[in-house]
């Protein structure tokens, strides 16, 4: 299906063996992660079930899991809302991203072969193409893929679920300010990350990861929240 008002649920691949509950969860999870459902959007389980052509039961379970992930709020009237972003929460999430992802990158560095770095460079090239076409769904998906591939290079990693939880909470608001990122993102920090990886330079890698997060969303997001006078209160 296409857009439903201001929100939509992009298609995902339904793997063999994926249960209906898992499909509903991954489809809604993906939409929130990409920012296809804006902050403060109010939904119903019945409406989501109709959109997905599913019974309410798997959607209800998906919403329960997403509520535990702090990706949605279940309201008293049985409606569901994607949380509005607040400046304090935004700053907390940005700092969490920096701490978690710098740690993950340094831990992954000894495990990255040259061919893995070349694969990351190929993903980054696809990001450049998506940006040129203003395909923000693809751009966001590829940005996650770039970072996920890097961090998962550590065979002993246990941090990716924590990182994805932060991405999920930032996703809807990130889409709102994505176009403004280019005002701050004057250096392509992915290129700096790739250079640091090739040189096996952990210090330069952590600086590049932190700069990528701050310039990628941190500054434009903070400016939008601090300068907005008409955002509805959360809660």
Automatic annotation (TrEMBL):
Residues annotated as domain GntR C-terminal = 92-215
Q: Which residues form the signal peptide?
A: none
Q: Name one Pfam family in it.
A: GntR
**Domain HTH gntR-type, chain residue ranges per copy:** 24-82
Q: Which UniProt keywords apply?
A: DNA-binding, Transcription, Transcription regulation
Q: What is this protein called?
A: GntR family transcriptional regulator
Natural source organism: Paracoccus marinaquae
């Amino acid at each position: 299906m296409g857009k439903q008002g201001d929100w939509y649920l992009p298609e995902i691949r339904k793997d063999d063996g994926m249960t209906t509950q898992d499909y509903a969860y991954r489809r809604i999870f993906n939409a929130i992660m990409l920012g296809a459902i804006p902050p403060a959007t109010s939904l119903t389980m019945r409406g989501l079930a109709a959109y997905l052509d599913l019974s309410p039961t798997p959607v209800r379970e998906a919403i329960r899991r997403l509520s535990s992930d702090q990706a949605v709020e279940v309201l008293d009237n049985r409606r569901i809302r994607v949380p509005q972003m607040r400046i304090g929460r935004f700053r907390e999430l940005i700092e969490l991203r920096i701490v978690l992802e710098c740690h993950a990158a340094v831990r992954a560095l000894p495990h990255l072969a040259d061919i893995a770095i070349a694969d990351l460079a190929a993903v980054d090239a696809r990001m450049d193409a998506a940006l040129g076409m203003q395909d923000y769904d693809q751009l966001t998906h590829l940005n996650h893929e770039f970072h996920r591939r890097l961090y998962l290079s550590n065979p002993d990693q246990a941090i990716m679920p924590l990182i994805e939880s932060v991405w999920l909470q930032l996703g809807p608001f990130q889409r709102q300010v994505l176009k403004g990122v280019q005002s701050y993102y004057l250096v392509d920090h992915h290129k700096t990350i790739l250079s640091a990886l090739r040189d096996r330079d952990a210090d330069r890698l952590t600086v590049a990861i932190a700069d990528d997060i701050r310039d990628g969303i941190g500054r434009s997001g903070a400016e939008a929240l601090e300068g907005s006078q008409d955002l509805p209160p959360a809660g």
